Amino acid sequence: MKTLLLTLGLGAIGCLAQATAPETVLTNGTIYSLDSKSSVFRRGEVSFANGTILCIGAEGACAKDATDKTRIVNLQGKTVLPGLIDAHAHPIDAGRAMLDRLNTNRPVMLIATNQHNVWLNTRGLRALNITSATANPPGGRIGKDANGFPTGVLEENAAGPARALSGDRGITDLDAAIAGLTVLRQQGFTTILNALATPTRAWKTLARDNRLTARIFNAFGVFGSLDFDAIAAQARNATQQLDDGAMVASRPGEFWRHVKFFVDGVLPAVSQSAMLVTPYLVNNSNTWVPGTNFGIPGSTSAQLEDLFTKILGINQGLHLHACGDAGVRQILTVAARMNRTFTPSQVAVAHAELVHPDDLAKFATLGVPAVMSYQWAQKATYWNEPSRLTLGPERMARTEPHTGILSAGGLLVYGSDWPVDPLDAFLALKVGVTRSGDASNRNSHSSFGPQFVGRLDTQTGLTREQALRGMTVSATTYLEQEKLVGSLEKGKFADIIVTDRDFLDARAVPDEELGRNRVLLTLLGGRPVWANATWVPQDWTATAKALEDTAIAQRLNTRNILPRSISGRQCQHGSHEY
Ligand SMILES: *[C@@H]1O[C@H](CO)[C@@H](O)[C@H](O)[C@H]1NC(C)=O
Ligand SMILES: *[C@@H]1O[C@H](CO)[C@@H](O)[C@H](O)[C@H]1NC(C)=O
Ligand SMILES: *[C@@H]1O[C@H](CO)[C@@H](O)[C@H](O)[C@H]1NC(C)=O
Ligand SMILES: *[C@@H]1O[C@H](CO)[C@@H](O)[C@H](O)[C@H]1NC(C)=O
Ligand SMILES: *[C@@H]1O[C@H](CO)[C@@H](O)[C@H](O)[C@H]1NC(C)=O
Ligand SMILES: *[C@@H]1O[C@H](CO)[C@@H](O)[C@H](O)[C@H]1NC(C)=O
Ligand SMILES: *[C@@H]1O[C@H](CO)[C@@H](O)[C@H](O)[C@H]1NC(C)=O
Ligand SMILES: [Zn+2]
Fold this sequence. Notes:
The protein is of the alpha/beta class. Helices cover 28% and strands 22% of the residues. The chain is built from 18 helices and 24 strands. Helix 2 (91-99) packs across helix 5 and helix 5 packs across helix 6 (202-208). It is globular and about 80 Å long. The model is unreliable at 1-18, 101-105 and 564-578 (pLDDT under 50). The structure holds 2-acetamido-2-deoxy-beta-D-glucopyranose (7 copies) and zinc ion. The site of one 2-acetamido-2-deoxy-beta-D-glucopyranose has 2 residues, from loops. One 2-acetamido-2-deoxy-beta-D-glucopyranose binds at residues 128-129. Keywords: Signal.
C-alpha cells in the first residue's frame, strides 16, 4: 500500500516537473499579453511546451525553469503579441483572386469588387435566359435600361444563377486554401472566420499533411437562398462531418459553428443595395432629397425571425451581413423579439457600416457583437462623390461607427472582408486608430492621390489597444474561444507573433506610421509557420520555409487586387488601363 502511494506520488511529481519544463523560452521582447489587466512585460519572457504557454513575465521569470533541453530565443527587443484573429474573411475566394488568370472562354462574368454584384456579357445573359421579361428574384435586382432591356448587371440574389453557372474558375479549393494560408501566416493571422463557407475537403487535406497554418472557423452560407430548412440541414451536415471538436494547441483544425446570411447589400453608389432607414438621396435640381430606394432586403423580418429560430435551434450561430442602418436594425429588432440575451457566438452583425444612433447601445444590451472592417474608415473610392451625395452628409458623418458601438458597451471585433480589400492587418489597425489611410502603402486608397489623404470624418478613432483587442482577444470572445486563444496567458495556446515595431508604443511609432510594421515570426501552437528575421533560429526558419509551396508561391499575385474603380476617372490595373 505504502509502495503504491509512493509510486503514485513520484509519478505525480514527475509529471509536474515534466509539465513545467519549457521547450522554448522567448526572451528579451516587449510582451503585450492583452489579458484583462493589459499586462506588459518589457525585456519580458514567454515560455511554452507542447503548444501551450507555461509562463509569461519579466526578465528571468520563465527562463528560471529552463533545462538543458530548453531552447532560448533572444527576440532582440522586438514586440510580442497574441496571434491575430480575422473574424470575417473569404480565404478561398482570396486564394482564387491571387491565383486567377484571365479565362477567355465565353460567356464572361465580371464580379464586382464588393463581391455582391456581377456583370454578364450578352452571351452570359443568353446562357441564363435573362430577357426584358425576366422579373427580379426576391432580394435581387436585374439591371435594365430605359427600354427595359437587361444591361448585364445582376445585383445581390439575381447574381446567384450566374455564379452557379460560372463554375470554379479552374482553381481548386486546395490551391486556393494554400494561397490564402500563405498570406495569412505572413501577416500573423492564426485564427480566422471563413465568412461564406461551403464544405470542402481542403482544410482536412492540409491538416493531414501538417500544412494547415491557421485555425479555421467556417460560417456556412449559400448566396441568395431563402430555403432555411435546407440551409439548416446542410449546416448541420457540415458540422457533423467536418467540425474537429475542441481546439487543440498543436493541431489546428476546422470548426463549423455558424451560418452566414445576407440581410442586405452594400452602401456605395451605384449599388445602393444596403437597407436604409431613410431612402438614398436623389438629385432634385442640385438639392439632394430622399428618393424611393431603401435598398434591397435579403429577407422580410418574418423570414429573418424564422432563420433565427431554425439556426439557433440547431445550436449554430448566425453571422449576419448588414451594411445599412435599416439592415442592422432589422437584425437587432428580430434579436430583441427572441426575448433573450445571446452568447457572443450566437448572433453577430458583420460590417454594420451605418448604424442609427438609437441602435448603437443595442449591440451591448442584446449581446450582439459587431464584426467590422477598420480599413473602411479611410477615404476611399467607395466613398466617392456619388456615394457621399446619395448618403448625404448626416449619414456620411456616422459611417463605420467603431467607437460608437464600443463606447456603448458593445463587443467590437475585426473582420477584414478580404479579398474585398487586400489583407493588410496593420493598415487596418492604423485606419481604426486614425480614420485615415497611408499614402505610402499601395494597399491604401490614400496612395491613389491627394483626394484620398486625410481623415474620412471627425469621429473619434479607436485607441491602439482597442483596435488590437478587436483583432485578438475580442475576436476570440466572439468565437467563444477566449479561454484558449486571443491573449498571452499561462495555459493558453502558444499562438504568438513577433513584430518589427511596437504598435502600442506611441513614442516609438507615431500615428502616421502605425500601418508600417512587419510580422517577423508567427508561431501557431508553438510551431514556427512564418519567420523572416536573422535572430530566428535557423531550423525554425527552415520549418517555416518548408511550408511554402513553390508552385503556388510563383503564381501568387498579392498585388493589384485593390479596387481602383473611381467613377469617371481613368483606372490602372497592372499595365492595363481602362
Ligand atoms: C500535448 O498536447 C496534446 C494536445 O494538445 C495532448 O494530447 C498531450 O497529452 C500533451 N502532451 C504532454 C506531454 O503534455
Ligand atoms: C535585448 O535586445 C536589445 C535590442 O533591443 C539588445 O540591445 C540587447 O543586447 C538585448 N539583450 C540581451 C541580454 O541580449
Ligand atoms: C433557357 O431556355 C432554354 C429553352 O427556352 C432551356 O432549354 C434552357 O434550359 C434554359 N436555360 C436555363 C439556364 O434556364
Ligand atoms: C451531407 O454531406 C454529404 C457528404 O458530403 C452529402 O453527400 C450530402 O448530400 C449532404 N446532405 C445535405 C443535406 O447537404
Ligand atoms: C444634379 O442635377 C442637375 C440638373 O438638375 C445637374 O445639373 C447636376 O449636374 C446634377 N448633379 C450631379 C452631381 O449629378
Ligand atoms: C417574446 O415575448 C412577447 C411578449 O411577451 C411574445 O409575444 C413573443 O411571442 C415572444 N417571442 C418569442 C420568440 O418567444
Ligand atoms: C522579409 O524581411 C525583409 C527585410 O529584412 C523584407 O525586405 C522582406 O520584404 C520581408 N519579406 C516578406 C515577405 O515580408
Ligand atoms: Zn464578406
